[in-house]
Write a structure and sequence with these properties.
Helix-turn-helix transcriptional regulator, Lambda_DNA-bd_dom_sf, mainly alpha, 87 residues, Cro/C1-type_HTH
């Protein structure tokens, strides 16, 4: 029997993106300029219509000047992340 990991919380990921953008007072256009990503890509990410790639989230981490773990860590909300002491 195969045991599958819990589903990632993509809704928490998009909320994290929105919170970071709003906390800085940035528009989608401004974040696009800072990240090198298309405005439409950012809108789709924040509205949950796209998941993005590692490259996308890497660019966003640099634009926000935060560790990528701060962005992607929300994927594990509601369950214990792999490799943690509680796992």
């Amino acid at each position: 029997m195969t045991i599958l990991p819990p589903d990632p919380d993509r809704d928490a990921l998009r909320v994290t993106l929105a919170r970071l953008r709003n906390a800085r007072g940035w528009t989608f256009d401004e974040l696009a300029g800072r990240s090198g990503l298309a405005r439409r890509t950012l809108i789709d990410l924040e509205h949950g219509r796209a998941a993005g790639t590692v490259t996308t989230w890497h660019a966003l981490a640099h634009a926000f000047d935060v560790p990528i773990e701060q962005l992607l860590g929300s994927l594990c909300e509601g369950h214990t992340p792999p490799g943690s002491k509680d796992a």
